[in-house]
Amino acid sequence: MSHEAVADIGLIGLAVMGQNLILNMDDHGFVVCAYNRTVEKVDHFLSHEAKGTNIVGAHSIKELCQKLKSPRKVMMLVKAGQAVDDFIAQLLPHLEKGDIIIDGGNSHYPDTIRRTKELEAKGFLFVGCGVSGGEEGARFGPSMMPGGSRDAWPALKPIFQAISAKVNGEPCCDWVGEDGAGHYVKMVHNGIEYGDMQMICEAYQIMKDALDLSDDELSDIFAEWNKGELDSYLIEITTNILKYKDTDGSSLVSHIKDTAGQKGTGKWTVLSALDQGMPVTLIGEAVFSRCLSAIKNERIAASKILKGPTAKFTGDKKEFIHQVSKALYASKIISYAQGFMLMRSAAKDNGWHLNNAGIALMWRGGCIIRSVFLGDIKAAYTKNPELENLLFDPFFTKAVTEAAPGWRNVVAQAALLGIPTPATSSALAFFDGYRHAVLPANLLQAQRDYFGAHTYQRLDNESYVHTNWTGTGGEVSSTTYLA
Ligand SMILES: *[C@@H]1O[C@H](CO)[C@@H](O)[C@H](O)[C@H]1NC(C)=O
Ligand SMILES: *[C@@H]1O[C@H](CO)[C@@H](O)[C@H](O)[C@H]1NC(C)=O
Ligand SMILES: CC(=O)N[C@H]1CO[C@H](CO)[C@@H](O)[C@@H]1O
């Protein structure tokens, strides 16, 4: 068997995502060498899905590395965690300094930070690349978010940008930043996806419960929304889902058990937000909403004990539907503003130089959260790369201000009718908090100083002071505790 260096890139892991990325690379003229631990899988792939292509295979890691042109590029699409470290260990004896290992899986970014440091110390290059768009995206154009060893990018760019999704000819793939930045941005993407889905579900429930609309009618409304500012993949699939019929002609979605699953990337985003001290409230509510949905038996019991309002919606239905679309749009602006706040903070902490306009473009096509709206975010960050907050961009300032009256009415109506809107209403609470120069934390600081001598600052003096509130307080203030 010939072990000539014929391949442009190697790919480990022949599950669907891996296979589809290989076929996508082949479509674009790159020679790919495929490897899987279960080697029969390689032969099966070559004689079936890859038949008639230029794809080659390898039956060992050694053979895989021998078949790669220098600098060698090996991409792993394996389960996040130990498997990634195991494959790296197996690859290293067969690689040379300057060769590139790419982790295209859903790794947690601290692992990617660690791996980049370890491999760079040994003279290798490592890239953690978020890949979004599911099986279809992998096959015909995913959104790709690579970060890690910067020196790897010139070698990877032609391949990654060729196979990624395109919007108006621009690839939805660009260099994200240092070490774990690519996987971090992918994680936030997934968190934002949780938020987008939850907001849509709330709009669906408000209209269903308050206005008594059928799934067919709701499908038509979402189809209409998809022609305007809410135009996005998730609204599009919602339209299709709502009109999908079960065998008996009723809507299939009405038969699906209302308990949500989750794999953890939403939770990771929220944990990182807590670590960063960033108020990413909407994604937090989206994660907790899935948790609440999961305790269905308890909710069934509660539904028999805890009664809510019996009032019915009495306003103008058409106007209300329009306001729900505005509530969704405004909440979405808040969610993305929060997501970019989080990335900005994490970037500062980790020394990443994030390209915000590039991130918006990477999410603009190919991935689950793709939307017209991301084009507006890209425009905002292109105009001002140092933009402190998305809400300060004139386009978004105007958009959120104009949407606010409808948004407020929807949240108020939902509260009066007893319909839960955790994401939509927490987004409004954030908006109102964010636009207040003065919040009641003055009282909170006083409380902390009262019971814990935690000290406070005066508006007219930055020094931390403690007050003897009760006349019984001691001398000591806990000046080390300022959290
Ligand atoms: C600020 O407060 C500290 C502590 O009470 C005090 O020592 C200092 O003189 C004050 N500064 C001004 C400018 O009032
Ligand atoms: C707190 O106030 C009381 C009552 O005025 C006083 O007896 C006590 O000495 C004060 N404590 C300090 C640390 O100043
Ligand atoms: C790394 C690896 O071995 N990946 C895949 C090989 O093929 C099997 C069967 O399709 C997959 O389950 C593995 O994940």
UniProtKB/TrEMBL annotation:
The keyword Acetylation does not apply. Belongs to the 6-phosphogluconate dehydrogenase family. InterPro entries: 6-PGluconate_DH-like_C_sf, 6PGD_dom2, 6PGDH_C, 6PGDH_Gnd/GntZ, 6PGDH_NADP-bd, 6PGdom_BS, NAD(P)-bd_dom_sf, Pgluconate_DH. SMART domains: 6PGD (SM01350). SUPFAM superfamilies: 6-phosphogluconate dehydrogenase C-terminal domain-like (SSF48179), NAD(P)-binding Rossmann-fold domains (SSF51735). It comes from Dissophora globulifera. GO terms for molecular function: NADP binding; phosphogluconate dehydrogenase (decarboxylating) activity. The gene is 6PGD. It catalyses: 6-phospho-D-gluconate + NADP(+) = D-ribulose 5-phosphate + CO2 + NADPH. Catalyzes the oxidative decarboxylation of 6-phosphogluconate to ribulose 5-phosphate and CO(2), with concomitant reduction of NADP to NADPH. Residues 182-470 form the 6-phosphogluconate dehydrogenase C-terminal domain. GO terms for biological process: D-gluconate metabolic process; pentose-phosphate shunt, oxidative branch. The lineage of its organism: Eukaryota, Fungi, Fungi incertae sedis, Mucoromycota, Mortierellomycotina. Homodimer. The active site is at K186 (proton acceptor), E193 (proton donor). NADP(+) binds at G13, L14, A15, V16, M17, G18, N36, R37, T38, V78, K79, A80, N106. Pfam families: 6PGD, NAD_binding_2. Pathway: Carbohydrate degradation; pentose phosphate pathway; D-ribulose 5-phosphate from D-glucose 6-phosphate (oxidative stage): step 3/3. This is 6-phosphogluconate dehydrogenase, decarboxylating.
